[in-house]
Amino acid sequence: MLLGVNITRKKLVYILLIIGPLVCVVASLFIGRYPITIADVTGVLWSKLTQNPSGIPEKYYAIIWEIRMPRAIVGALVGGSLAISGAAFQGLFRNPLVSSGILGVSSGAGFGAALAILLFSSTSYVYLFSFVFGGVAVFLSYIIGRVYNTTLTIMLVLGGVIVSSIFSALISFIKYVADPYNQLPTIVFWLMGSLASLQFKDIFIAGVPMIVGIIGLIALRWKINVLSMGDKEARTLGINTALYKAIIIAFATLATAGAVCVSGIIGWVGLVIPHIGRMLVGNDNKVLIPTSLSLGACFLIIVDNLGRVISGSEVPLGILTALVGGPFFIYLLKTTKGGGW
Amino acid sequence: MAKVFVQGAGFGYGSQDVFNEINCKIDSGEIFCIVGPNGCGKTTFIDCLLGILKLNEGDIFLEGQNIKTMTPGEIAKLISYVPQLHEKTFPYLVKEIVMMGRAAYTGWFSSPSKEDSEIAESVLDMVGLGDFKNKPYTQLSGGEGQLVMIARALAQKASVIVMDEPTAHLDFRHEMKVLETIVKLVKDTRLSVIMATHFPNHAFYFENNRIPTSVALMSDMTFSQIGSPSNVLSEANIKKLYNINAKVVSYPISSDTELKQIIPINSNIDSGTIA
């Protein structure tokens, strides 16, 4: 009993999942290398809300509003996108071991980014190239998966593996020919993933595909249950499997490619967050898909905050996600006994 | 009007014919057993009935509509499917599995409604699994799992259920449970059941339970005979179909019922003698 209302554990979980990402975004405004007191952060937020001047230095406004805020919002979108498309792909491919990168989007995007850095020696075309090549990689996997004129699930996975390995080889080739003093470190850092130096304009560029993908997957989430019964059964249950698969792959690719192009390659989230979701709310994608979205968003913001306070220089996100997430996953596995797994 | 009407059906992969010139019709409240050796094309024929494979020749009509012109959703409202062995992936709850039977009634961007949830619970009660609705279906026994599959098919509210060897992996008790459930459903709801089976004795079981039962013998790439179990499942036919020696025996199980059974003897048909 809380406030005279009977709140079950289930409802409590849902409430936490809804307010969790908001709390994480706001909390991360208070965290960073530059020391700003809690009172000042609150003052900045208050004056932004009320449109009143506050007498707090302009510099603080810039740090909180133009650095920390966009970073937190993009972090939430990236984490949510990776986790939601990971959950969708796991259901679609009937395989709990696939992640958002299963159809080659990560290696395709990585190749695009590396190519852009090699060609232009700057990061200005990285978004465009990584987004386009992420999409191209998935499209190629899909074409390979259609050799028999239908989209057999196993052929799609095989197509993804083949395309991923081709693009990984191409990434290695670009690293090999890149200038080792300027380009190579940029490429390596990009591939490790980071949310540093994000601005509001990034939200508008990469946010559109992420939000479209997220909305699409949420709308189709229950159909993923049916597709996870396998091609033949899903079809006899009345689903046009080829069409639904193509649309779900398209939405998941939009979300993932949007995420990868701003953040670089961040592993782990798209594989393990959906499993954490299953332990909390079960396997029904009707609930699991939104849960993964929320958990992924919270997780990435928290890890990103850790990454920027843990040491003098920022620890790349791709490293921390697994270092922080791994032990957390083991803890949950122990306390929930896997929830039916 | 026949629930299912098959006319001159033929199918093949490339130049390799699987079956041809199949004709049959299945009425309301009838059980239609397809019997034949491994690899004779039973499952391929079933896939054609379900609209997964497209016939090369002939037509299939479901309640008068040609299946060629129907979408998967329209087909699923008329004919449902119970697989031979359902491959379990995620540990969905029993009720979540049964709800998937409502997919054909669910719009593009929607999830099942409260009404669908009530239908799911009522069909679970019909197969006697009402108490299992909140259990992960991966934790059920093989027989219970098969009943969940039947409940999912019932949730489709189709008037024909196709079953591909529904008792293939079950022990005696669970096999009986599944057969009894089928008999009850056919009697109570006038459902039609099309069943591929390796156990011709099932056809005798249905006949003994006073259900209109037909048996189709599938051999030489077609239905070589269709008729009542007593007429079609003769020692001579079993010998031809499976290449074995068998006896058909009759045993009184109550004052007014004789249970017929096929007993396989040996595969050495050249010896010509049956003990």
Verbal overview:
The complex is a heterodimer of chains A (about 350) and B (about 280). Chain A has about 350 residues and is mainly α. Helix content of chain A is about 75%, strand content about 0%. Chain B folds into 2 domains: about 230 residues, P-loop containing nucleotide triphosphate hydrolases (Rossmann fold), CATH 3.40.50; about 30 residues, no CATH class. Chain B is an alpha/beta fold and about 280 residues long. At the A-B interface, helix 9 and helix 10 of A face helix 2 and strand 6 of B.
Which tags fit this structure?
heterodimer; A: 341 residues; ABC transporter involved in vitamin B12 uptake, BtuC; globular; B: alpha/beta; Rossmann fold; 6-stranded mixed beta sheet; 12 strands
Quick take:
The complex is a heterodimer of chains A (341) and B (275). With 341 residues, chain A is mainly alpha-helical.
- Largest beta sheet of chain A, briefly? none
Q: How many distinct domains of chain A?
A: 1
Helix content bin of chain A:
over 70%
Low-confidence stretches of chain A: none
